[in-house]
Write a structure and sequence with these properties.
alpha/beta; 5-stranded parallel beta sheet; 3-stranded parallel beta sheet; 16 helices; 12 strands; globular; binds zinc ion
């Protein structure tokens, strides 16, 4: 802190101020008014940390790993958040992915968004079958046919067919709960626990296919995009990510509907993505893990949240070490989303977070932290836990025998 006198000297105003006022020292309110105030656009604010602490570089994971959460393919056609085509967009070639995988000690990538029908077959052929043991593909519901009266049976059969085509599990995007509507893109939002999906959840259990499910989103996305929102810049850059207002349910309502599905389908395994979609509240995630033995979580795109509460996170990993899967949300060429862009730097940050006790470092390869302006701390997991999180827990879900 500098006092007013020093500040006035610094600003070269002392002589004039004293001569003019002759009233002695101003009150702090007056002081604030006198001080020239510069405005700085938030997007131009890129402070350099002056903190000097140890910085590790972890180029390779200590053990071979499975990245349980990636997007190598995507639907070629979507409308209002609902995927509407079997056709896939291929976001990266197997060869370019394998180069990074080999450098980073990634044994396998799980491509969640493999679609269905022909798109699924194309994906399995290009990746899973061409490079056995390196890629695993999941299928997705066919919402195009949602309005057909026999949808529940159709969807269950489609999962069986996908299984025969080589799909290793089912992926549910946040489409369910936030985008899918009674008339697909219009009408009332369809609830996550709508009974029309019951046959689909059941058949996944019967076929031993895990359901990778994304429900809700970060809490800040349900609050107004204003100066109090800790993810203001992110929401300002992506206004369509805001679920504040309109007819959106609250995050709590979405999670409750999701929990009713877990309770109703105890024989189905659910991998609840993004740390159970409530990384801001690990006590809640822990409570649900205790309630639902058929629930596990991945850590994709949430090391920003986990790493800003390193002590709580470390305890969480110790307690639930058999139920946490390594995942990143990595998407080839997703340069506009640095927290999930598939490249060497992204993986190095995850490894640094899990394997070191480094302090105060960036959680994404970006100049400005993309998911809120803070930095993270490593949790330095012991080898036994690392092996489980990197490989064993995912291998069990995918029935991979080594
Ligand atoms: Zn994802």
């Amino acid at each position: 802190m500098i006092n007013r006198r020093q500040w006035l000297y610094g600003a070269g105003l002392m002589a004039g101020a004293v001569a003019q006022s002759g009233r002695g020292l101003a009150t702090s309110t007056e002081e604030a008014q006198e001080r020239p105030k510069h405005s700085l656009d938030l997007s131009d604010f890129v402070p350099t940390s002056m903190l000097q602490v140890h910085a590790s570089r972890v180029e390779r994971a200590r053990f071979p790993l499975i990245d349980f959460h990636t997007h190598i393919t995507a639907s070629a056609k979507s409308e209002k958040g609902v995927a509407l085509a079997s056709d896939r967009r291929f976001l990266g070639t197997a060869e370019e992915l394998l180069a990074v995988m080999d450098r980073k000690n990634i044994r396998a990538m799980v491509n969640l968004t493999g679609g269905y029908d022909q798109g699924l077959s194309d994906t399995v052929a290009k990746y899973d079958r061409a490079f056995p043991g390196r890629f695993y593909t999941l299928t997705e519901p066919c919402y195009e046919r949602w309005k057909e009266p026999n949808y529940p049976q159709f969807q269950a059969q489609a999962i069986e067919q996908a299984h025969r085509q080589g799909a290793r599990g089912l992926k549910i995007l946040k489409t369910l709960g936030l985008y899918l509507r009674e008339n697909i893109t219009s009408g009332q939002l369809v609830k996550i626990d709508d009974p029309r999906f019951d046959p689909m959840w059941d058949v996944c259990g019967q076929l031993n296919m895990p359901v990778a499910i994304h429900v809700s989103d970060p809490l800040a996305f349900f609050n107004p995009t204003d100066r109090f929102n800790e993810r203001y810049e992110e929401l300002n850059n992506h206004p369509d990510w805001s679920f504040y207002g309109r007819d959106f349910p609250s995050s709590a309502e979405l999670l409750e509907a999701r929990n009713r599905v877990f309770a109703r389908h105890p024989k189905t395994q659910f991998v609840v993505l993004h740390v159970g979609n409530f990384a801001e509240n690990l006590a809640n995630v822990a409570e649900n893990l205790d309630r639902f033995p058929n629930m596990t979580v991945d850590i994709a795109a949430r090391i920003g949240e986990l790493g800003r509460q390193p002590r709580t996170t470390r305890k969480f990993f110790e307690k639930y070490q058999d139920r946490i899967l390594f995942g990143t949300d990595a998407t080839p060429h997703a340069d506009q989303y640095p927290q999930q862009v598939f490249n060497d730097q992204l993986y190095e940050i995850y490894y640094r977070f899990l394997e070191t006790e480094d302090e105060y470092f960036d959680y994404a390869p970006a100049k400005i932290p993309p998911q809120g302006r803070w930095r993270i701390y490593g949790i330095n997991l012991p080898e036994t836990i690392l092996r489980k999180v990197y490989f064993e827990n995912a291998a069990r879900q995918l029935n991979i025998v080594v």
